[in-house]
Design a protein that fits this description.
By secondary structure, the chain is of the alpha+beta class. Helix content is about 20%, strand content about 30%.
């Protein structure tokens, strides 16, 4: 009975030690997405997940879309940016090895709208009114 307990403990310790010796690739530089040109009324709520193959030197050797944002322009920009990322290589037992990791780019914005007044001017573009008896300017400092 005692031998069985020691064997179980020894196996668990060996499994934990083997797992602890693997260190996944660590990001050194994640390239941001370049500015994307979208119409002002487009609502963005997109995430693209990339799968990157990292060699033993930490260089990205392959980039693929793991989960698409649904927008070809965003996916293409993410693929280009993902190829410019750099990593510290993964290690197994202290030795650098090739590995695979994932990163994601999340884009979000609100619908931008322009309000047009009755005079045909966009909101906020009208010249300030001069002070009159009906429209007194606020005193300075208030």
């Amino acid at each position: 009975m005692r031998l069985r307990i020691l064997t179980g403990v020894a196996l668990a310790a060996a499994a934990a030690a083997a797992y602890a010796t693997f260190v996944p690739p660590q990001p050194v530089h994640i390239e941001p997405l370049p500015p994307l040109d979208f119409p002002p009324t487009k609502i963005l709520a997109d995430t693209v997940v990339l799968q990157l193959d990292i060699d033993a030197a930490g260089a990205v050797t392959n980039v693929a879309v793991w989960s698409s944002s649904g927008d070809k322009q965003i996916d293409a920009a993410a693929l280009a940016a993902g190829g410019k990322c750099t990593f510290a290589a993964a290690t197994q037992d202290g030795q650098p090895i090739a590995a695979t990791t994932q990163i994601f780019y999340r884009l979000s914005s609100y619908r931008r709208t322009e309000y047009v007044g009755a005079d045909g001017k966009k909101a906020g573009t009208a010249a300030p009114k001069a002070a009159t008896a009906d429209n007194k300017a606020a005193p300075p400092g208030k």
